[in-house]
Design a protein that fits this description.
The chain is built from 11 helices and 11 strands. It is α+β, with helices and mostly antiparallel strands and 371 residues long.
Length: 371
């Protein structure tokens, strides 16, 4: 048998590293929790760990010794680090399994009152509007929030000099490679244009969604919600528009004898155009809809301008129809007595708890819209 004096240095190094590896691997395997694994890791790989101290001896070795020791030290370091990580994951997985086995949730229990979720008034009103117009045969259409000039302005017969195109009213994006500037849509009317261009008539749609304008006060916000409606066929006239909006207003405000009037107005995309008022009563700072001799504006409407139809690829000599637009946030304020539009977007859970709706109460015309 060779004695220690005749044993080669490389063989002795390999033997010492094998003993060190066996010691750490045994310690890692014996660890019963993550803390014990970390203790082994620190004793091996920490700043003053045994393997770390070995690595520091490389600087004092000759090039020949370093060429042998450095790969061996790094291999041991990597093997111990891998063993630590594997044991850590195994212990964490076992702890999670044990926790899942002991912690159960009875999903049949009712939700605690203080944790009850609420539907935002805007979402509730959107559902109410969809329910009403869905009963009239309207379908819901959608479109992008970022629009080009054609769909947001030109196709709607809005001339280049119109104030709505100015930067103080509209959010413009930076120029693209073609020098064109897209906008955050100022209304949901572009959805109507896209629908008409992509589908043959007749059309009967509503387009609820977010819109954006550079304005902010008690009744205006930079982002708000609108729903716009469109009906296009060969026989629709102003009387149909009036009947449709009267049915909507009476169903939404839940007032059977609601008084309404249509006042002549002007919009670039409709001709003739009208603004719609509903009867109300203002008394002592309180607003009552359906009572009194006062009036309150709620929406704009009119017969679709022939130029709009032509821009959308529809023959205006054959087809005609009507369109209308309603501010969802505004009629939500009117119906539910919300005084400040800005509160809709402040994410105050106390406000939502006060004005919010129970998720299970889905609005329907049969069971009631606001329950």
């Amino acid at each position: 048998m060779p004695n220690n004096k005749s044993e080669k240095p490389s063989e002795k190094l390999a033997e010492n590293l094998a003993d060190l590896k066996s010691e750490f691997v045994s310690g890692i395997a014996a660890a019963v929790d993550v803390a014990a694994v970390d203790a082994v890791r620190i004793s091996a790989l920490g700043k003053k760990g045994r393997i770390s101290l070995l690595m520091k001896t490389l600087g004092k070795m000759t090039p020949e010794e370093r060429s042998v020791s450095s790969p061996a030290f790094n291999a041991l370091k990597d093997e111990i680090a891998a063993a630590v990580e594997a044991r850590r994951k195994a212990l964490e997985g076992a702890a999670l399994d044990a926790r899942l086995a002991t912690e159960t949730v009875d999903v049949t229990l009712p939700v605690r009152a203080e944790r009850q979720g609420h539907i935002h008034p805007v979402s509730q009103v959107m559902d109410e509007i969809i329910a009403i117009f869905g009963d009239m045969g309207f379908s819901v259409a959608d479109g992008p929030d970022i629009e080009d000039d054609f769909h947001n302005f030109t196709a709607l017969n809005i001339p280049p000099e119109h104030p709505a195109r100015q930067m103080h009213d509209t959010f413009y994006l930076l120029e693209d490679a073609n020098g064109e500037r897209k906008v955050l849509r100022t209304h949901t009317s572009p959805v109507q244009i896209r629908h008409m261009m992509n589908n043959p008539p007749p059309h009967r749609i509503i387009a609820p969604g977010r819109t954006y304008r550079s304005d902010s006060d008690i009744t205006h916000t930079p982002m708000f919600h609108q729903v716009e409606g469109l009906v296009i066929d060969k026989a629709t006239h102003m009387g149909h528009l009036k009947g449709c909006l009267e049915e909507f207003a009476r169903a939404f405000f839940e007032v059977d004898n609601l008084r309404m009037r249509f006042r002549p107005s002007h919009f670039p995309f409709t001709e003739p155009s009208a603004e719609v008022d509903i009867g109300c009563k203002r008394d002592g700072g309180e607003l009552r809809i359906g009572e009194g001799d006062d009036w309150l504006e709620i929406l704009g409407c009119g017969m679709v301008h022939p130029k709009v139809l032509e821009h959308a690829g529809i023959d205006s000599s054959i087809y005609q129809g009507f369109a209308f637009g309603v501010g969802i946030d505004r009629i939500a304020m009117l119906k539910y007595g919300i005084p400040d539009l800005r509160a809709f977007f402040e994410c105050d859970l106390r406000w939502l708890k006060h004005y919010g709706f129970v998720p299970s109460d889905v609005p329907t015309l049969a069971q009631g819209l606001a329950r």
